[in-house]
TrEMBL record:
Family as reported in the entry's similarity comment: Belongs to the UPF0410 family.
Highest classification ranks of the organism: Bacteria, Pseudomonadati, Pseudomonadota, Alphaproteobacteria, Sphingomonadales
Keywords assigned: Cell membrane, Membrane, Transmembrane, Transmembrane helix
Domain of life: Bacteria
UniProt-annotated location(s): Cell membrane
Name the UniProt record assigns to this protein: Putative membrane protein YeaQ/YmgE (Transglycosylase-associated protein family)
The species this protein was found in: Novosphingobium fluoreni
Membrane topology, as annotated: Multi-pass membrane protein
Transmembrane segments: 6-22, 29-51, 63-83
Chief place where the protein resides: membrane
Cellular component GO terms held in the UniProt record: plasma membrane
Length: 89
């Protein structure tokens, strides 16, 4: 059940991050899920220890962990845009 929630929340977070970074037209639902889940992993390693809380990959779905996962997804898309286009956008 937790895996399904992680995929669902990861898809929504990846979709919101792609809208913010203006890459929504290039991605489908599968890439939104991938960006959201990898963003949550980045947040669990980098962002969550700085701001406190637990990552969504551990099953915590509070506001702090969702915000950290969103920031992780935005960071991931910024890195991808940097290598793909040469600018963050």
């Amino acid at each position: 059940m937790t895996l399904i929630l992680i995929l669902l929340v990861g898809g929504i977070i990846g979709w919101l991050a792609s809208i913010l970074m203006r890459t929504d037209a290039q991605q489908g639902i599968f890439l939104n899920i991938v960006v959201g889940v990898i963003g949550a992993l980045i947040a669990g390693v980098v962002i969550t220890p700085l701001i406190g809380g637990a990552p969504i990959t551990s099953g915590a779905f509070d506001i702090m962990s969702l915000f950290a996962s969103f920031l992780g997804a935005v960071i991931l898309l910024a890195i991808v845009n940097l290598f793909r286009r040469g600018s963050i956008r």
